[in-house]
C-alpha cells in the first residue's frame, strides 16, 4: 500500500514553472528535431508510435477488438483491430492517426499548464507499456522498448528540473512535428505512391475525396500547434 501511495505521489507531483529560457530552448530543439533531416529520420519513429497508438485508442473506444500493432524501420506502421468494417467508429479510428500526435501535444500542453509536468512523462510510460503488449514485430518491440526506457529513466531517476524540461520538449515536439507527416502524405499521394493511405481509406469509407481528409488533418494539426504553442509560450512572452 505504501508503495502504491509513493508511486501516486510521484505521478501527481506538482512541478515548478520552468525558467523562460528553458521553455525557449526546448522550443528551438523541438523545431530542430523536426526540420533537420538526419534528426527527423530518428524522431519520426516517435510520431509513428503515437500515430498508431491513436488508431488503437479510438478503436478501443468504439468497441473494436485490438489485435496488434507493427512499427517498421521506414517509420511506417499499422494498427490492427477487428470489428465492423464501416461506420463512424471506423472513420474516426482511421482519421485519428495523423491528428493523434497533435491532439496528444495539445492535451500535454494543458497538463503542463496545471504544473504537473511529470504526469506528461508518466502518461507516456503507461501508454508505451500498453502498446508493448500489442506489438507484433521485432522493430516495433525495439522502438517501444527504447522510448519507454528513456521515459521511465526520466521519471524514476531524473531530477525535477530534467523532468520538467523533458516534458516541455516532448510536448512541443509533438505539436511541431504533427503537421509534417500530413504534408509528406500528400506529396506521396501526388506521386501515386500511397494508394492505401489513411486519407484514401477515408475516401472509400465516406465518398469524400482524400485531399479533403488531408486538408482536414492539416487544419487540425496546425490548430493544435497554434493553440498549444500559445498556451506554453504565452507565459514566456508575458
From TrEMBL:
Domain of life, source organism:
Bacteria
Give yes or no: UniProt keyword Transcription: no
The membrane spanning regions, by residue number, are 21-40, 87-111, 117-134, 141-159, 165-183, 211-233
Q: InterPro entries, per this entry? A: Peptidase_M50B-like (IPR049500)
Keywords attached to this entry? Membrane, Transmembrane, Transmembrane helix
Q: Which Pfam families match?
A: Peptidase_M50B
Q: What protein name is recorded for this chain?
A: Peptidase M50B-like
